[in-house]
Amino acid sequence: MTNSAPDDGCGLRERKRTATKLAIITAARTLTAARGVSGFTVEELCEEVGISRRTFFNYFPAKEDAILGSPADEIPADLAEKFIAGGAASAPGTFSPTLLADFTDFAVALMDRMAISRQEMNALKDAVAAEPRLLQKVLHGSRDAEDAIAALLTAREGIPADDPRVGAALGLFACLTERAGPAFFDPENTRSYRSILTEHIAALQELFASSTPPTSAKDIS
Questions:
Q1: For the chain, what percent of residues have pLDDT higher than 90?
Q2: Sequential DSSP letters for 21-82
């Protein structure tokens, strides 16, 4: 019991830091969607969030970094814990049979908790696409997002990060979300993200079920 107070204090500080960081990201994206990348200053962003310039630069080196966000920090702790816990029953060195279903629930929950609307997201995508200088940052952000999911996956399944199955799972997840995301954000779409994502998963499962796997490395070449 004597150690609980310091631990609680550290946990509270970390939660506050995460909340502030997410508030900055959300405000930066909302302003970008409304005005474009060059349509607001760091000072205006700080005023929107209620922080000082010094606080802002404690979290991000530049406005563009706040717009793109930090993938690892944008995964709520409760969703991460639930996803990891789903692999508790799997045998060491094997993938749990509910991995794909749990990833679906995880991805849908992340989408449900987005702090900006579909319309704002489309405006944000257009604004970022119109800024060539952000391209490298976008690519770097994609790698960060992949690393964040890889960390969750290895923690869940107890499999080393360099295991080729981890890379295959990441590629599969990326393929599914990269196809479901644009379909969901299409201005004409009326379907839920879950229904779109599930449809893509079902199509992939049907494809794999009807395919004959190679029996050796020689068959692949």
A1: 39
A2: HHHHHHHHHHHHHHH-TTSS-HHHHHHHHT--HHHHHHH-SSHHHHHH--GGGGS-HHHHHH
